[in-house]
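seq:
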Amino acid sequence: MTQNEGQNIQTQMDMTTSTLQQLGQLDLPKAESNFHSITIVGQIEGHLVLPPQNKTTKYEHIIPQLVAIEQNPNIKGLLIILNTVGGDVEAGLAIAEMIVSMTKPTVSLILGGGHSIGVPIAVASDYSFIAETATMTIHPIRLTGLVIGVPQTYEYLDKMQDRVINFVIKHSNIDERTFRELMFSTGNLARDIGTVLVGKDAVACGLIDEVGGIGQAVKKLEELINNR
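struct:
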């Protein structure tokens, strides 16, 4: 065995070990694809760093990926997979605005949950899917921690809430009255106001385009790419 062959074998072993440690499997399927997928899971981390035990999606990691996808001529479309509880409002809106401004076809798929600020991200794509058992929680914007009780604070919250509402109704088929009713509904959530939509309910109200899974999402994205 030559020195180069030995180095190649060692490199392959190191890659296999790394894949096993990070992904829990020995090898990944190697298939050519003309689209890229991004996953948004856990809590969307914004300007404040969350505790290490929280599973987070950092918006400063997602935004450069979106820029790279937009610039890469070999990538023809984007698939966004969501299973998020929400998180930082401004970070979520930044991601949503980036997605909606892309020139390449985009499809989103909610698996598990697309709650809170995950709603604008889900509707930012050209076409959206939700799994049959997945849920979406719609509620007013909330702050945690110390809040100074002055009129400016409430005005700020109202303006931020209007930003979210206007974005959602602009990029989905739901009307403002229905969305506000879902947002401020009482009795659906314990000790809180808002509404939980499950699968087909999110489609029925016009928030999401279709109930489906990964197969339908990939097929739709390929269709959009071919049409584009």
